[in-house]
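Weekly sync, protein design subgroup
Attendees: M.S., D.O., the rotation student, P.L. (late)

Item 1: inverse folding check
M.S. brought a backbone from last month's batch and wanted to see whether the design step gives back something sensible before we order anything. D.O. pointed out we never logged the input encoding, so this time it goes straight into the notes. Structure tokens as presented (290 positions):
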């Protein structure tokens, strides 16, 4: 089996996603330029995970999975725009530039989020026919990003009286971040017509990867550099915010991040050699600096 260079793989897939996104946002009307401002510059982890899963599950024609992968990035970007709003985290800086509300004002930032959300579903349903795979993707994504998942996680994160306990932290991390990461992986499996059993196992492993992702996000918020992160460090660790370092200390958070990486890799490994690449991206996430 060929040993894949994960950095090269990530760069190639990121370029693919970036090109597709450019195309989806080309010249439809002037508002697409405003939405594209926020789309530009992300790491593209979620769409890359969808593509990775599509390929690992035997999917061949990337044109099948690209609109779904990009739709996930649109929803993710929407969540970042709204997360940065003055009424939420009030962050002036995102993806290395002024956040959407700083650049265009609050109303257009809110509308950018609204527009990206709707446009994502247009991408999920793109093509000439409605297939079982598209149905399953829409069912899963709408379930996970709404009030049973990301939106719920965010309501807890903004501090509606959650107590500072490991249990509350876990609830926030699972809902705000892990479910979306796991969903991205499962969407790729669905588009490749993987068996339900495999898709479900990937989702479960993806939850551990998602927990790891949020742990490293929390850690980088304490130790990361603004230029590398492209956002303002310290926002998530502001007084009263429930984060992994706040609960466990930096070393405790690092220890647990490592454990989530181990748990994720254990589950991916059980799925067989063709899923090895997921172990590599898990290590990449564990060691990331941005
Ligand atoms: C409907 C999805 C949706 C959201 C509305 C505002 C909100 C409710 C949720 C915010 C959730 C949130 C910001 C979670 C944090 C997830 C996270 C770790 C973001 C950083 O992701 P990266 O590092 O960022 O992949 P880039 O910029 O590289 O894409």
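Designed sequence read out in the meeting:
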């Amino acid at each position: 089996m060929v040993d894949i260079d994960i950095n090269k793989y990530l760069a190639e897939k990121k370029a693919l996603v970036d090109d597709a996104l450019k195309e989806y946002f080309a010249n439809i009307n002037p508002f697409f330029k405003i939405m594209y401002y926020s789309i530009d510059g992300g790491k593209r982890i979620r769409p890359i995970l969808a593509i990775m899963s599509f390929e690992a599950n035997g999917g061949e024609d990337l044109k099948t999975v690209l609109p779904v992968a990009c739709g996930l990035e649109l929803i993710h970007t929407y969540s970042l725009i709204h997360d940065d709003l003055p009424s939420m985290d009030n962050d002036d800086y995102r993806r290395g530039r002024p956040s959407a509300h700083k650049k265009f004002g609050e109303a257009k930032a809110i509308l950018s989020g609204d527009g990206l959300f709707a446009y994502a579903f247009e991408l999920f349903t793109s093509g000439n026919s409605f297939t079982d795979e598209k149905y399953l993707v829409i069912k899963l994504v709408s379930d996970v990003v709404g009030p049973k998942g990301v939106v719920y996680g965010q309501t807890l994160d903004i501090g509606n009286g959650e107590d500072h306990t490991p249990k509350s932290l876990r609830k926030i991390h699972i809902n705000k971040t892990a479910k979306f990461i796991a969903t991205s992986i499962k969407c790729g499996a669905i588009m490749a017509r993987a068996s339900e059993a495999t898709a479900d196992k990937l989702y479960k492993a993806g939850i551990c990867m998602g927990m790891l992702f949020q742990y490293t996000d929390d850690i980088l918020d304490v130790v990361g550099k603004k230029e590398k992160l492209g956002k303002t460090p310290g926002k998530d660790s502001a007084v009263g915010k429930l984060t992994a370092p706040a609960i466990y200390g930096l070393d405790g958070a690092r220890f647990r991040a490592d454990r989530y990486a181990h748990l994720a890799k254990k589950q991916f490994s059980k799925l067989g050699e063709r899923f090895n690449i997921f172990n590599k991206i898990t290590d990449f996430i564990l060691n990331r600096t941005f």
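Discussion: Residues 42-43, 45, 75-76, 78-80, 82-83, 88, 95, 145, 150-151, 154, 176-177, 213-214, 217 surround geranylgeranyl diphosphate (CB under 6 Å). The longest helix spans residues 196-223.
Action: P.L. to compare against the previous round before Friday.
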